[in-house]
Specification:
five-stranded antiparallel beta sheet; four-stranded antiparallel beta sheet; 9 helices; Teneurin; EGF-like domain-containing protein; repeat; EGF_extracell
C-alpha cells in the first residue's frame, strides 16, 4: 500500500458525559458542534471562497437558454435549483417525505453537469494510464481529459499535464530542438504502364501525395513527364524513361515508363505511391496502371520497379555530424571526402550542391588508405576504423563492432528499448527497438541517453509519474507500472483477478507508470470514532491527510494523475427512496471462533457466544466498516439441552447486520478462520456458519449526495441551500455529504406545493 504518515488530531470528539458544560447543563463541546452545524450554510461558502482555486457554485453564470426551447424557465423550472440554469430539464418523480412530487432533479443537456447544470463537461479520450479492470484490460475509453489533465468546470476545457496536449490531453507534445538535416542516398523506381491501341486521344494525370500534375498528352515524351512531375511541390528531382513505344507514354501495344526518384529535399524516409488517372484518355483498349516495390511492367517484363533499399546516413557516412558538440547541423568530412556533393555521390553542380561529404576527392592521396579514419569522438588518437573494428567493405564502409557507430566508428552507441513512437512497419506491428526508446537523445560521446521530460530509465523506457509540488505523486501516492497497478484493482472494494502483463497488445505493461493515490482504506466516507483509531496508531497513520474537514472525522481518497485532487464525501440522495443493505449470519456451534472479512479487512476473532453489542463493535473496529446495527433474532433460552449455556451469535436463529455507513449493494460478509464446533444434533450436511443477503442495498452513493458541488481542491462538498451534512441515513451528521435536508426550506419547491403557513 502507499506510504503513510502519522496525522495531527484537530477534531473534537463527541462528549462522553463528562467535561465542561454550559448553561442548562449542555456540554460545551456539544454546543460548539451544534453552533458549527448551524453556521454551515454561512461559513462553508466563505471558507470555500478562501480555499478554492476555482469558483464552483456561489454564482450561477448568466447563460442564454437553449435555443430549441421557447421558455426555458417554464419548461425547466419547477422545483429544480436555479431552473437547471437553462442547460437541463427538470424531471423525475422523487419522494419528499411520504408524498411523491415531480420536478426535483435536473437532467442536464450534453456538455453540462452538476445539480443545477451550471458546470461544464470536458472532452474525453482513452485513458493514458489507469488501474486495469480485468485480465489484460486497461486504458478505459471516454475518460475526461484522458486521465492526464484536470477539467475546468467553468469553461469545459482540460488543463493538461506537462508534456501532453490536445482538447482531451490525448496526445503528447512533440519535442522541440535543433533541426539537423539528413541526406539520403536512396533510389526509388516506380513504373507506369499505359496502352491505347488506335484512335488514341486525350490525356493522363499523375498524382503524388494529394497533388496532381497538369494534363499529360497520351503521346508525351519522357522529358515532358519529368517536367510535369518536378512541378509538384513534393517531388524535387526525378529521371523518367520510356520503353517499348515511339509514340510516347501510351503506345498501341503498351508502353512502360520508369520514374526514378533522384533527390528529395523533403527528406522522406519512404517514398509514397504515384497513382495514374486515365479517365480523359480515349481510344481502343485503353488501360493504365502503376507498379512498385519490385513489380514488373505487364507489357515489357524486363522493366521493373524497385523499392528503395539504401539507408539514410548522416553526412553520407563520410563525415561526422556536429563534431565537438557544436550542434549546428554541419558535417566535418573524413580525409579524402567532400566537402560537398550533388546529392548522389558525385561532385557538386550549380543546381545541386549539398554539403554532405558525399563525394570522393580525386586530388587526395589514397595510397595505403582502405577505410575511413577520424579521431574517435570520445577521445583518443586518430585511427582507421579497421584498427579496432572489423575493417571495411569494398565500398569503404566500416563494419563497426557492437557498441560503436558512425562512418568511421567514431561514436559510442546508446542502448535500445521498445520505441514509444515510431512509424508502423505493418498494419499491426510497431514499437520497434530504437536508441533511447525514441524518447530521449543519445550522447554519442558517452553512449548514454538523456531522456525527455516525460520519460526515465537508462533507455528512457518508462513514462514518469507526474510531479506535484516537486514530489512524485505529491508524496500522496506511489508510482507504479500498469502491471503493478493491476494488483490493486478492486470491484466493489474487493480485489479482483485483473492482470496486465507484457504482450504485443499490452506492450506498455511495464513502461507506462501512474500514481496510485493514497487511500483512506474506507469503502465510503464516514465518521471514524476514537475506538477505531485505537491506541496502536494504525488507522491514525492511514488517516493522515485524508481528513476532509469542516464536518468532523470525514476521510476520502486522493485522486488525479498527480494525486493533487481529493474525492468528496458521498452519500444518499434524501429525495429518493432506498433501503440499507441487510445481511444475515446463520451460526450453529457450541464452541470456537470465526472472523469476518469485508472489503479486504478482517475482524478480530468472534467467539461463538459473543453477544450482539460485542459483534457490532468487532465489525465496526475494522477500517472498511463505519456503522452497523446488529440484532439477534429468536435467541435460544439459556441452558437448553445440547445447545450450550450461552445466548451468543451461534446460539440464535440468525444475526441481522444492517449497514448504516456503506451505501448501495455492498459485497457479502465473508467467514474466515473458523474453529467452530458443530452442535451435537446438527447433520454434517448443514454448514456451521454461513452468510446470506437479506436486503440488497438500494440507497445511492453519490458525490455530495447529488445536492452539492465537489471542490476537489480541498475534498469538500458545497451544498445547495437547504442541504447539509448527513449521517448517511437522512439525518444530520458528520458524513460531509449533502444528504441532510432542512425541511423548513421550501425555496426550490414548485409554487403549488409551497405551504401558506
Amino acid at each position: 500500500m502507499p506510504p503513510i504518515h502519522p496525522p495531527s488530531r484537530s477534531l473534537l470528539p463527541e462528549p462522553d458525559g463528562e467535561g465542561e458544560r454550559g448553561e442548562g447543563g449542555e456540554p460545551l463541546v456539544a454546543i460548539l458542534n451544534r453552533a458549527i452545524g448551524g453556521l454551515s450554510r454561512i461559513l462553508l461558502p466563505a471558507v470555500s471562497a478562501l480555499l478554492l482555486s476555482s469558483v464552483l457554485l456561489s454564482v450561477v453564470p448568466t447563460i442564454s437558454a437553449d435555443p430549441g426551447v421557447k421558455n426555458a424557465w417554464t419548461v425547466y423550472g419547477g422545483g429544480c435549483p436555479a431552473g437547471c440554469s437553462g442547460h437541463g430539464q427538470c424531471v423525475g418523480a422523487k419522494q419528499d417525505g411520504l408524498v411523491d412530487k415531480f420536478g426535483h432533479e435536473c437532467k442536464c443537456h450534453s456538455g453540462y453537469t452538476g445539480t443545477a447544470c451550471t458546470l461544464r463537461v470536458c472532452p474525453a479520450g482513452r485513458a493514458w494510464a489507469d488501474v486495469p479492470t480485468a485480465a489484460q484490460t486497461a486504458h478505459a475509453d471516454d475518460v475526461e481529459c484522458s486521465g492526464f489533465g484536470f477539467c475546468n468546470r467553468m469553461t469545459g476545457e482540460c488543463t493538461c499535464r506537462d508534456g501532453f496536449e490536445g482538447n482531451a490531453c490525448q496526445r503528447t507534445s512533440c519535442p522541440k530542438g535543433d533541426n539537423n538535416p539528413e541526406t539520403t542516398w536512396v533510389d526509388e523506381i516506380q513504373v507506369l504502364d499505359c496502352k491505347c491501341d488506335s484512335n488514341c486521344q486525350g490525356w493522363i494525370t499523375l498524382n503524388y501525395l494529394g497533388e496532381s500534375t497538369r494534363l499529360i498528352p497520351f503521346n508525351a515524351a519522357a522529358s515532358l513527364v519529368e517536367d510535369e512531375l518536378e512541378r509538384l511541390h513534393m517531388i524535387t528531382d526525378v529521371r523518367v524513361k520510356t520503353y517499348g513505344s515511339e509514340n510516347g507514354v501510351c503506345g498501341p501495344n503498351g508502353a512502360a515508363t520508369t520514374i526514378q526518384f533522384l533527390r528529395d529535399d523533403f527528406k522522406l524516409r519512404d517514398y509514397k505511391n504515384i497513382t495514374v488517372n486515365a479517365t480523359r484518355l480515349t481510344g481502343t483498349n485503353v488501360a493504365a496502371a502503376m507498379y512498385r516495390s519490385g513489380q514488373s511492367s505487364a507489357y515489357i517484363p524486363t522493366v521493373s520497379s524497385q523499392k528503395s533499399t539504401k539507408v539514410m546516413l548522416e553526412c553520407a557516412g563520410r563525415g561526422t555530424c556536429n563534431p565537438d558538440n557544436k550542434n549546428d547541423g554541419t558535417c566535418k568530412c573524413y580525409p579524402g571526402y567532400g566537402p560537398s556533393s550533388d546529392g548522389r555521390g558525385g561532385r557538386p553542380t550549380e543546381e545541386f550542391n549539398y554539403k554532405d561529404c558525399g563525394s570522393i576527392r580525386t586530388d587526395f592521396n589514397w595510397t595505403g588508405i582502405t577505410c575511413p579514419y577520424v579521431a574517435p569522438q570520445w577521445g583518443g588518437a586518430q585511427s582507421i576504423c579497421g584498427t579496432k573494428h572489423n575493417a571495411c567493405n569494398a565500398q569503404k564502409q566500416c563494419n563497426c563492432t557492437h557498441g560503436y557507430e558512425g562512418g568511421a566508428c567514431e561514436w559510442l552507441s546508446c542502448s535500445k528499448g521498445k520505441s514509444w513512437f515510431d512509424e508502423a512497419v505493418s498494419p499491426t506491428k510497431a514499437h520497434q527497438l530504437a536508441p533511447c526508446s525514441n524518447a530521449g537523445t543519445c550522447s554519442k560521446k558517452t553512449g548514454q541517453c538523456t531522456c525527455s521530460a516525460l520519460f526515465e530509465g537508462s533507455v528512457c523506457s518508462q513514462m514518469k509519474c507526474a510531479l506535484n509540488d516537486t514530489y512524485v505523486c505529491g508524496d500522496k501516492g506511489v508510482c507504479m507500472t500498469m502491471n503493478k497497478l493491476a494488483t490493486y484493482s478492486t470491484t466493489n472494494g474487493e480485489y479482483n483477478s485483473a492482470t496486465y502483463t507484457s504482450t504485443d497488445s499490452t506492450w506498455d505493461a511495464n513502461k507506462i507508470q501512474a500514481c496510485y493515490c493514497r487511500k483512506s482504506m474506507a469503502g465510503n466516507s464516514y465518521a471514524w470514532d476514537w475506538d477505531q483509531l485505537g491506541n496502536d496508531g494504525m488507522l491514525e497513520s492511514v488517516a493522515f491527510n485524508t481528513f476532509r474537514g469542516y464536518h468532523a472525522n470525514t476521510h476520502t481518497d486522493y485522486k488525479g494523475f498527480d494525486c493533487s485532487k481529493m474525492e468528496c464525501p458521498r452519500g444518499d440522495d434524501p429525495l429518493t427512496p432506498g433501503d440499507n443493505e441487510v445481511q444475515r449470519i446463520y451460526c450453529s456451534a457450541t464452541a470456537g471462533t470465526f472472523s469476518i472479512k469485508f472489503r479486504e479487512n478482517t475482524t478480530a476473532a468472534i467467539n461463538w457466544n459473543d453477544g450482539a453489542p460485542i459483534v457490532k463493535k468487532k465489525l465496526e473496529d475494522i477500517f472498511t466498516i463505519g456503522k452497523v446495527n446488529v440484532t439477534f433474532v429468536n435467541s435460544t433460552v439459556v441452558g437448553t439441552p445440547g445447545y450450550g449455556s450461552g445466548k451468543g451469535i451461534c446460539n440464535t436463529t440468525y444475526a441481522s447486520v444492517e449497514f448504516l455507513s456503506e451505501l448501495g449493494d455492498v459485497p457479502p460478509l465473508r467467514v474466515v478462520s473458523s474453529t467452530l464446533s458443530k452442535k451435537p444434533n446438527l447433520s454434517d450436511s448443514i454448514s456451521k456458519i454461513n452468510v446470506t443477503e437479506y436486503y440488497k442495498g438500494t440507497k445511492e452513493n453519490l458525490e455530495c449526495s447529488s445536492h452539492g458541488y465537489c471542490n476537489d481542491d480541498i475534498g469538500m462538498c458545497i451544498c445547495e441551500e437547504g442541504y447539509s451534512s448527513s449521517d448517511g441515513q437522512g439525518g444530520k451528521g458528520h458524513r460531509g455529504d449533502c444528504g441532510f435536508r432542512y425541511y423548513d426550506t421550501q425555496k426550490y419547491l414548485p409554487e403549488a406545493e409551497v405551504s401558506d403557513e
